[in-house]
Amino acid sequence: TTGASSNSDSSTTVESVEDNPDGGCHIYRNGYYRTGISVVEGILEVNIIQMTSIQMTESQAENSLVDFVVTCQGSLPTDVCTVVSDPTCQVSKSVACDPIIVTDECLLTVRRAFEEPGTYCINITLGDDTSQALASALISVNGGEST
């Protein structure tokens, strides 16, 4: 910016900007601008209120399935992402994102598969066009059972 000034209207600013795209050519831009700001509520809070292991037959026991019951406050989410990591929450093992439709109350069940027994960090993120909120938990998966 080579210079900036404002006139008596505090919402309007005049700026002179110099670009030098190829070293020898100078472009000067002067003008007025105005913008509006919309404040949206967003998704304020996410909570994992229940984790339930899904019982499967021995022939289906390739993966352990766990249902996570999730609630949120604020605006209604349009998508859910789940990141499964090591117990320190540092090394990501899998990421799954899905669109969701929540029409009235923010209460949903997210089902995820775990390939092998172990302890995992799970991050569930609910999002919409303007916000995201995250809940985390540690889960121990023991060959079809979880705690």
Automatic annotation (TrEMBL):
Highest lineage ranks of the organism?
A: Eukaryota, Metazoa, Chordata, Craniata, Vertebrata
Cellular component annotations (GO), alphabetically ordered? plasma membrane
Q: Where is this region: Disordered?
A: 1-22
Q: Offer one example of a GO biological process linked to this entry.
A: cell adhesion
Q: Note the InterPro entries from the entry.
A: PKAT (IPR045219), PKAT_KLD (IPR046846)
Name this polypeptide is given: QNR71 protein
Query: Record's superkingdom?
Result: Eukaryota
MF terms (GO), sorted A to Z = integrin binding
Pfam families with a match to the protein in the record: PKAT_KLD (PF20433)
Here the segments flagged for biased composition (Low complexity) are 1-15
